[in-house]
Amino acid sequence: MGNTPCFASICSSRVCSEWGLGKDTKGFYMSLVKRTVFFMLLILSSCSKRELEPPREIPLPKEPAAIYHEVLFHGETLSLIAAWYTGDSKNWKTIADFNPGLNPNNISIRDIIKIPKSIVKREKSFTQSELQAMKKSMRKKPSLLERSINPQNSLDADSGTAETYGEKEQYEGG
């Protein structure tokens, strides 16, 4: 029992040299243990929880508060919509500015129009009969410009008559 062959002497010299086995098997096993411990620590360190800073909340740009109006009827205009929701037809420009992709001269059915909540006085949409009534009442009210200018000569296009200093004359275009 004194001369028990070691593992290194049993394997071929080529295999032993490739595996790092020499006459010192203790060194081989220590090297193997060191490698194993190193890789285990490497694996465990990659699995450990790291202190991460809490996720930051990235504030989204706030869209101004608005109500939305869907165009449902022919003849709706921004001035009618402004008059209904804000009480003043002159707010059509504010509404147009609030809707940059909207052409105020070309509003179509199913268009969605945003109206700034800061100028809204009424949130309920109008019916078709309310739209017709609004159109009639807006036609009867002359604008401030029309009320302040008193033209000396005017032409009534419907009747074909012209008024000069308050007298009516028949206009015959030619």
From TrEMBL:
- Which domain of life does this protein belong to? Bacteria
- InterPro entries attached to this UniProt entry: LysM, LysM_dom_sf
Q: Where is the composition biased (Basic and acidic residues)?
A: 165-174
The residues that cross the membrane are none
Instruction: For the region Disordered, give the residue spans.
Output: 133-174
UniProt-recorded name of the protein: LysM peptidoglycan-binding domain-containing protein
Taxonomy, top ranks, is: Bacteria, Deltaproteobacteria, SAR324 cluster
